[in-house]
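ARCHIVE RECORD
Type: protein–small molecule complex
Small molecule: nicotinamide-adenine-dinucleotide
Source of inputs: curated submission
Record status: active
Notes field left blank by submitter.
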Amino acid sequence: MSILISRRNVLKAGSAIAALQLIGNGARAALANGKLRTAHIGVGGMGGGDLTSIASHAKVEVAALCDVDQTRLDAAAAKHAQAVTFRDYREMIAKLGDKIDAVVVSTPDHTHAPAAMLAMLAGKPVYCQKPLTHEVFEARQLRQVAEQKGLVTQMGIQVHSSVTYRRAVAMIQGGVIGKVSQVHAWSNKNWGYDGGAFQPTPQIPATLDWNLWLGTAAERPFTQGVYHPGNWRKLIDFGTGTLGDMGVHIFDTPYAALELTFPRWAKTTCRSPSGIGHPEKNIVEYEFPGTKYTTNSLSWKWYDGSFAPPASEALQLPADLKLPGQGSLFVGEGGTMLLPHVAEPVLFPTEKFKDYKRPELENQNHYHQWVDACLGQGKTSASFAYAGPLTEALLLGVVANRFPDTKLMWDAAALQVTNLPAANQLLKREYRADFKVAGLG
Ligand SMILES: NC(=O)c1ccc[n+]([C@@H]2O[C@H](COP(=O)([O-])OP(=O)(O)OC[C@H]3O[C@@H](n4cnc5c(N)ncnc54)[C@H](O)[C@@H]3O)[C@@H](O)[C@H]2O)c1
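STRUCTURE (tokenized, with ligand):
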């Protein structure tokens, strides 16, 4: 029985308030007009794709669009003429109130937490792009508020719902290679910047509201081609480097399959910090406590930039095997599984697994899953309850790139690095005065 049907029954019994409590904030949306009225923050780049994918659900009505770049806002508005438009998400959430039911956040990483938190404080379910946040503390706070308010949430790791990644999870959990002792994961993309300071561009493009783009981050002059669009990924104040960008997709499958929690420690091998960009190449090592799918503990190694992919022989794979540019490798007691990024898993040794029958699964639509859950049907697979700890683990590795070759010992319960007080300063940042949000910086 769906949650909405149970609501009707309760209403018959004359208790509307009890019904609303039962169905939760997400499903309450269906009461207004039978459609989920969505508001989208950041509608260019990936935000444009998110908008199309969410709007393709028959029960979605795109009600509001927000972007700090007028060109991008206009392009999205041309496809959704009924939507009201804003430049400032704070104004959009405050003004629209009950006229919107759910919020999608597709901005650069440093704006995920403040926008998602404001939406959740207003009682809205949220679809938020990956990585969930820019800081470890923000990930913890978003998860807790989502849980306290019982909101439907989903992080934008759409490949989590792909058949190949779900099959890889099923194969590992079905014990195909036995208990796993090591994970290697890599991306040869380079979302780092090893250079120095930037020269300001005399004029900010007339279509861009630079102050709103900076948002919670400290003021600085605009430089063409350095921040907006896209290149903010490389910079420590706005993005999370290759680890945050591609790592979150590639970490996701081993993290989910092995049911990992919080790492015991993280250590990064990279150049010394510049205070500007993330390093262009990193090796990040973690140790996780054991789970029912791993040996007593699990060692995890990430490689990016020109450190990726690692050498086949170092992974005990055939020397002539050309590894994909992005992917992961599970080393188990009874074999090895290679998972190229969004492709079918490959088992080694080949001869041992030649008759292995793969689980049959179907693709799922990650976006529609969130819309359906907002309307009271089913659950999301990458809610903030899952995405929060995954993002915390990932971001601890990003913090570690500021202290090369140092193991950051992690106390997850206390949200603290126990052996290096300076690292704790990087778990949370102070927001600019005009952009403060309750529960965050
Ligand atoms: N899931 C995926 O496969 C995937 C792929 C690409 C990007 N992403 C994620 O999507 C997000 C955006 O990445 P992108 O490559 O599209 O970046 P981008 O810079 O190209 O686009 C960001 C968009 O947000 C707008 N914006 C910036 N600040 C804003 C604010 N304060 N309020 C409203 N709008 C704002 C920009 O004008 C732009 O339209 C990032 O979190 C990124 O990690 C996810």
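CURATOR ANNOTATION: The CA atoms of residues 130 and 156 lie 5 Å apart.
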